[in-house]
Specification:
There is one protein chain. This protein has a three-stranded antiparallel β-sheet with strand order 4-1-8, with no helix packed on it. It has a three-stranded antiparallel β-sheet with strand order 3-2-5. The chain contains one helix and eight strands, in the order ββββαββββ. Helices cover 4% and strands 36% of the residues. It is mostly beta strands.
Length: 102
């Protein structure tokens, strides 16, 4: 789970590449979300284990019409997000065992 504070941002899930694909191809974008200040994002299963996720280091971003949560985030297609200070608090469950849950 991630709590996003401060500036709005785009949160992107990308295809996780096999080790032999790294450097040979770019991971494709699977999904994007607009994170507004005080947003909470909770994800698990394939979104956690089979995809890379994060916020790109950028001063400004354009919201694509394909963003998954346009209405819920009160976002508009082609809206430009001007990035300011942003703080992300990430919480993970860890089993303490390699290969264990979490």
């Amino acid at each position: 789970a991630c709590v996003s504070l401060g500036s709005s941002a785009l949160f992107t899930f990308r295809q996780r590449l096999r080790s032999d694909e790294i450097g040979a191809e770019e991971p494709r974008v699977l999904e994007q979300l607009v994170l507004r200040p005080r947003s909470l994002v909770v994800f698990s299963h394939d979104a956690y284990h089979s995809a890379l996720h994060g916020v790109a280091p950028s001063a400004r971003e354009r919201v694509e019409p394909t963003v998954a949560n346009l209405a819920a985030a009160a976002a508009s297609p082609n809206e430009v997000i001007e990035r300011g200070v942003r703080v992300s608090i990430t919480m993970r469950r860890w089993s303490g065992q390699p290969g264990g849950p979490g």
